[in-house]
Automatic annotation (TrEMBL):
PROSITE patterns: DNAJ_1, DNAJ_2. This is J domain-containing protein. Residues 1-58 form the J domain. The keyword Signal does not apply. Keywords: Membrane, Transmembrane, Transmembrane helix. The chain crosses the membrane at residues 101-120. It comes from Parasitella parasitica. It holds the Pfam family DnaJ.
Length: 178
C-alpha cells in the first residue's frame, strides 16, 4: 500500500483553498460544520506528532477531538514529565477563576481600608483628647502661677532659683569630697 506524504506547504495550500469555499461567511458554499471539520483536520495534519500518532493508533479524530484525552500511557513530547499533564480531574479545581480571585481581593482591600479608616478616626480622637487634657493642665498651671505671682510677688521665684543653686553647690561639694 502506497501512502502519499504531503508536505506542510501542500497541506497549507489545500487548506486555504477549501477554507475559502467552506467559510461560514461565504453565502453560496459556506458550511459551518464542514469548516470546523476542515480546521480540525488541518490541525491534525500540520502537527507531525499528532499526525503520526493518528496514523498508528486512530486516536485524535472525532466529534470531541479538541477534548479527547490521550490513551493511557501516551503523552506527547511537550507534556513529558509535566505535573499538569495528567488526566484532567473534574471534581476539584486547582485554580480559581479570575472573577472569583478579583472579588476576593477586592473584599480584602475594602476590609483593610475600612479597618484603617476606623483606626485613624479612633487614634485621631484619642490624640485630640490627650492634647485637650494637656492644654487644660497647662492653662490651669499658668493660671495658678499668675495668681501666685499676684499674691506673693517675685519672692517664690527668687526662692526657687536660690534653692536650685544651693542644690547644685551641695552636689558639687559632695563630689569633691569623694
Amino acid at each position: 500500500m502506497h501512502q502519499e506524504v504531503l508536505h506542510k506547504s501542500e497541506i497549507k495550500q489545500k487548506y486555504r483553498e477549501l477554507a475559502k469555499q467552506l467559510h461560514p461567511d461565504k453565502k453560496q458554499t459556506g458550511d459551518l460544520a464542514k469548516f470546523q471539520e476542515l480546521v480540525q483536520a488541518y490541525e491534525l495534519l500540520v502537527d507531525p506528532n499528532r499526525r503520526s500518532y493518528y496514523i498508528k493508533s486512530g486516536y485524535g479524530w472525532g466529534s470531541n477531538a479538541a477534548h479527547d484525552r490521550y490513551p493511557p500511557g501516551y503523552r506527547p513530547a511537550s507534556y513529558t514529565n509535566a505535573h499538569w499533564a495528567g488526566s484532567p480531574s473534574t471534581s476539584s479545581t486547582l485554580y480559581t477563576k479570575n472573577t472569583t480571585f478579583i472579588s476576593i481581593l477586592a473584599g480584602i482591600i475594602v476590609t483593610i481600608a475600612t479597618a484603617n479608616f476606623f483606626y485613624f478616626q479612633t487614634s485621631h480622637t484619642t490624640m485630640l483628647n490627650a492634647a485637650d487634657q494637656h492644654h487644660f493642665k497647662s492653662s490651669q498651671d499658668l493660671k495658678r502661677a499668675r495668681t501666685e505671682a499676684k499674691l506673693f510677688g517675685n519672692d517664690r521665684g527668687v526662692k526657687r532659683v536660690i534653692d536650685s543653686r544651693m542644690k547644685q553647690f551641695r552636689n558639687k561639694d559632695n563630689k569633691e569630697e569623694s
